[in-house]
## 1
Amino acid sequence: MAGEGRVRRHDPERRTRILDAALDVLVTDGTAGITHRKVAARADVPLGSVTYHFSSLAELQAQAFAWYVEQRTAEFEELFTKVEAHQDLVEVLVELVQGGPSRRRSAVLGFELHLAALRDPTLRALTQKWTKDSRAVLARFTGPEIAGRLDALLEGLIMHALLATEPEPREATRAAIVQALTPVAGRET
Amino acid sequence: MAGEGRVRRHDPERRTRILDAALDVLVTDGTAGITHRKVAARADVPLGSVTYHFSSLAELQAQAFAWYVEQRTAEFEELFTKVEAHQDLVEVLVELVQGGPSRRRSAVLGFELHLAALRDPTLRALTQKWTKDSRAVLARFTGPEIAGRLDALLEGLIMHALLATEPEPREATRAAIVQALTPVAGRET
Amino acid sequence: MAGEGRVRRHDPERRTRILDAALDVLVTDGTAGITHRKVAARADVPLGSVTYHFSSLAELQAQAFAWYVEQRTAEFEELFTKVEAHQDLVEVLVELVQGGPSRRRSAVLGFELHLAALRDPTLRALTQKWTKDSRAVLARFTGPEIAGRLDALLEGLIMHALLATEPEPREATRAAIVQALTPVAGRET
Amino acid sequence: MAGEGRVRRHDPERRTRILDAALDVLVTDGTAGITHRKVAARADVPLGSVTYHFSSLAELQAQAFAWYVEQRTAEFEELFTKVEAHQDLVEVLVELVQGGPSRRRSAVLGFELHLAALRDPTLRALTQKWTKDSRAVLARFTGPEIAGRLDALLEGLIMHALLATEPEPREATRAAIVQALTPVAGRET
DNA sequence: AATGAATGAGTGTTCATTCAT
DNA sequence: TATGAATGAACACTCATTCAT
């Protein structure tokens, strides 16, 4: 708002806009395809502006991912404020996995981050905190052990959902989640 | 099978050596970092040899991934030939997740492929066949529904294992797998 | 002299501090490596401050070199105030050449300036005046002809001293200087 | 010779032509101003060709300087093959210092190299060998001690000749050289 | 008076790809 | 058939300089 003039000298939200643009590029082209130029074009900002605000492409990527995790953590947290009964929990989790195209962006970024973290210790710190926080939220409803497996299951389900040509039936997803939530009767070794 | 033989005069294994080198590079640097030059260096082959055998870098990557899936599918299949009792199955799967550094390479390539497939239809065909085959193997022991969830769970567990600083306790992994294998007693929803 | 005072309100020594910083950068990185940013960092001054006080990088460099020549000329002059006997002169000159690391900075800047002057007429005016002044000082003790060759010899000795891995023996330096100071007996054409 | 066609696929002397072009650029713009693009333009060669033949700009510069020293050493050597009498020696040296514009290029490169060597150990190895070789040649006529001072004197004379607006009188140069060649009668110190 | 944000030109370098041999 | 030379496009990044505040 306030004038989309060609020349934008004072532009206090530029940093954030660049970060959002970087995330857009990461969704589209992945860490393999991100470049200063693509980000600048997406943010409608001169090339020099990107290198001015971020000391390197790696730094830009790291901050973009941090910004993504921050948003997604809040969103995740918020999702569970409405959960009261066990049934609510199941529904929320199913929605998390099956969530339409709106969720696709989020999921792609998540996997992109995971893979990048495999090679970048800085990012790994980010994913570890993220995983810990997610599990903590789940654990409020399930206890820590179940939260761990549930988290892994969700990760796998989401990845498969992303890659499947035709969506998994909602029932199958629900059944998988319900099972993960159900303590096993007879103890295992 | 066999077939494929296009160029194999003097150095019949050069093609394969290049593919293996490409996989090595993919493990180290990811799809973001693979180049003709790195592959050539790794395979100890002149640069021209790589571009000669593979019409483009994308083509090389695709064939490398195909070669990887072929190997991994066989390996996966083989893993289950020894399984007889239910207990064996659990052990094999736990090993699959916890498998040491030897399995790391495999796991990294798997995720790299999944992510690449998100944007490349050619690769998606590959991942779909792979997923289908893996599930089919699992289904021989568990039935189709459970195979699906189990597959997702394994995917998630492996990813988490890759990213964790300290390995998950073997017990937790086993418990998660056992649970996925155990049909839920009382139906819900 | 004095004059020059253009901008000196709140931080009257900032200009000088910037010039000194510029010289430091010139010693470290040469004319090939000087930048506004390095100078600003060295002077612990905001980037804008450098461009504010000096209209261009060339201008900054020129003034830094002028400042250097001014200092060095005074220092040179001062060096000879103590000289009375011929023997004193020799000692002072040997010290000039062999002078330890303290003199290194000075020598590097001198050669840097000479080379820059080769391509920049403004700087050449500076080097010419400098050479003239130096020779005039020497000439007070040696007469003009000897001063010229002596000056050249010193220049060469200093350059060699800078580049040598192990210092030339003090005796050799002294011998060279003594010889330059000694008028040739029998004239030859 | 042999066709100056626009497209020059096979061009075995390209490396050398690039080195010569690099020296040209170094004469014109110094180590401060050399770029891949300038060298490419000067050599009439595509940009990629320069980076193909030389792994970095520093490498290109180093090899160009090495090539220069090689040429200049040979030239220097050759200069003294004609020297028989003492008088010949003086004449050759005077010519070395006073040598017209043809010698200017050589001199500029020499100083450029000296200064660059101050900061680059690789280049310093080059200058040290060069200095050693030059002195050895001189020493054949003067003995080692005098060769050292003579070398320094020549260096200084040449630098001054480069920077002077009007050439030093030939006589003054000759006198300086003659003096450096003349052993001092009375012992010093 | 002073400065941080901003930008466009230019840098070194990498690389997929082409092609003559 | 196989390969090294070659090249043009693109990249990350640096920087002198401008300008609004």
## 2
Amino acid sequence: MLTGRQEKLLKLIVENYIKTVKPVSSKALSSKLKCSSATIRNEMAALENFGFIEKTHTSSGRVPSDLGYRYYVDNIMVPRELNGEDMLKLKQIFSNNALVLSDAINKSMEIVSELTNYTAIVLGSSSNDNRIAKIEVVPIADNKMIAIIITDKGHVENRNVSIPNNVSKAEVKQTIDIISKLIVGVPLNEVSSVLEFEVKPVIDRYVKEHEALYNAFYSAFSDFTPKPNMKMSGTTNLLMSPEFDDASKIRKILNKFEDKEMIKHIKEDDDEIKIYIGSENNIDDDISVIKTYFYKDGEEGTIALIGPKRMEYDKAEALLNFIKENIGNE
Amino acid sequence: MLTGRQEKLLKLIVENYIKTVKPVSSKALSSKLKCSSATIRNEMAALENFGFIEKTHTSSGRVPSDLGYRYYVDNIMVPRELNGEDMLKLKQIFSNNALVLSDAINKSMEIVSELTNYTAIVLGSSSNDNRIAKIEVVPIADNKMIAIIITDKGHVENRNVSIPNNVSKAEVKQTIDIISKLIVGVPLNEVSSVLEFEVKPVIDRYVKEHEALYNAFYSAFSDFTPKPNMKMSGTTNLLMSPEFDDASKIRKILNKFEDKEMIKHIKEDDDEIKIYIGSENNIDDDISVIKTYFYKDGEEGTIALIGPKRMEYDKAEALLNFIKENIGNE
DNA sequence: AATTAGCACTTCTATTCCATGAATGCTATT
DNA sequence: AATAGCATTCATGGAATAGAAGTGCTAATT
């Protein structure tokens, strides 16, 4: 276990490094820890033995290790109060009633990325307990219609439907009625199978041009499984940090960001706010990720902030926490 | 005017530089231009006098200048045939009837960014001649509704509406009916003023809680002026080019990409495919932009490719051209 | 008159060497 | 247990150097 002084020293090293991005020397801290640099060097040696700090070369100052950040986050850091101005900006977004929840989340994370200079990610989807509440079909040309699907949680999606030439308006209406009757109340992820096993037989039986019509609507309606959609804000913020000072490092991260797989790495299913430092996250050893899960009104997803390992964990946590509270849970 | 040989030489320099990203030496071309390096040096001096090529330092090989690229694009480059495989990939997207036009365009430009390794941008919006075809309002909670607006061109938008507590269902229905009756057929950009000057008086007259209800719907419907929306694909592709080999250059471009103003720079209103080389574009001197305008079925916008100045202009043009043809015009 | 061979000259690039400074670890002292 | 003092290590930046890759120009050649 760390002594009080060691803990204090680790705190100083972490916070100093977060601020300056330069290895911290014993001399620089001697005034703050009212003892000599030699004493600090001894304590530093101890912290290094524990694996909490590292040297970049034999005679360099110390830099927090992943483990050091971890200890800092878990045992030293005190939750930060959100500054009033920032709070106001975010509050305004959530109090705007015209905004759909997902838009409010996206907008607020955009603000957060500006406030922190980190990269914000919202990974959201309408959850599986969205059920179809209504289907509306609007003709827009002779053989073209727009099908609109509305869920009971207020999700709206629309698709093109091309109507084959040889079918009558009456048949189209008949088909829509059948689909509508059978599909209202069905959860999104079951739409496809309900169409196939319940709707198709009925259409086959009662509608003349059943094959062509069923296919037209099936291709429009079949892919309603909630698809996760990811929004990033301030993508480049992270790359402006001085530790990403050469092209290859920047490119490495940019490649990760473009990678379709990243979506999986970001996903979080724990309700608490989690912090993944350096090697703890699956994206890149040089960054940290702080994220949390949300669920509200049939929308679920993950919000995350990606920053350098020397991110201001306390501030990041306070911001995510505030947004989480504003989303509210159900 | 350039002699035949000078033109040939410029072509070789440009194409060589595009391929190798290294200044082109006289020696390297002597075999291809069946004459000695000394002769080529003389011709190079002439081309440099015209301003078509440049040296990076006194004893370096030559690099095309913006003017040189311009001459190449205008007078030397021959339109490229699209390769069959690429063509097929793109064709498939446009032949998928379930896709809305704007989605097809987005998807195809995504492919293009992969095929070229440049950054693709789609800047689109539903044009002003979209008229409201139908309004649908679906309740999803006691005091919450989803308003859905469908245009005659098949555009769909939806908004939240919060219903004040003290109004009856009948009143809500009455309000919706009034709005619906007066607003169908109105072009999107006039919705706001029609609401204010035609709908409001009627609601004021016939609906009891007119103020609260009008406000609720107005805030949902008022911002229907077609808002341009921008989609970028392969944002990082451009930055992988070897000419962007240091952090500050990459950051410079990334900053441009994040800049909200960029949307204005990309916008194009000429129907032809236009190429803006280096200083000719308003984004950055180190890049080139090739773009064109499209209009179809009430959707309009710009598609653009951003690449290094040494982009394969012929290929880029062929791709944009192909997509333009597939969008079709009206 | 156009082309070419030949050569001096310029600049970039990579390497080495060196001096400096900022740290450290360790030992001896308080 | 804390500190002063000192040798040691390594990063950093500048200067010097050698080599390579080009060019421009002149004089010879076609």
